[in-house]
Amino acid sequence: MTVEALDAGQVLGRSGELAELLVDAVDGGASVGFLAPLDRAGAQAWWQGRAAGVAAGELALWAAYEGTRLVGTVSLAFPDKPNSRHRAELVKLMVHRTARGRGLGRRLLDTAERAAVAASVTLLHLDTETGSPAEHLYRTAGWTRLGAIPDYAASPVGVLRPTTIYYKQVGAAALAGEPSGG
Predict the structure, then answer these.
(1) What value does the mean pLDDT of the chain take?
(2) Which residue from 32, 36, 61, 114 has the highest number of Cβ atoms inside 10 Å of its Cβ?
């Protein structure tokens, strides 16, 4: 498997493949911000809308391929406020159902964390559905659970579910041994 950063043109050019991955994630029950059934055209339009953020440097996106088939993504969303340029939000970590259980989620997570350090980001944060398989990945990768918010987002079938917030200090902050909470 290979993981590569996508530029804005690639996001547009591969929006169909990205849409197929997003539809698979939602169909598989992943709480990634969409309700089922998610139509391919809507998913493709959503991805096409991300190209401007990639072009502006507000969003970094990586895609994972098994051969030529897109099987995963992860993104970092960078805030635009001057007092928060040291942090980024990890978003849309998705692995196609046929590619799960082979370490791809961890590889994508590691890619985003290394890129954050290279961009002088020292704090990452994310939210995920409480009790989801993703929680195990984040805990075993050294992320710290901050807490859960009840009824934060609807699952793909429309049921309100709690969301757990995680964070991780990376780069200089992690090396300095600053407290990570816990």
Answers:
(1) 95
(2) 61
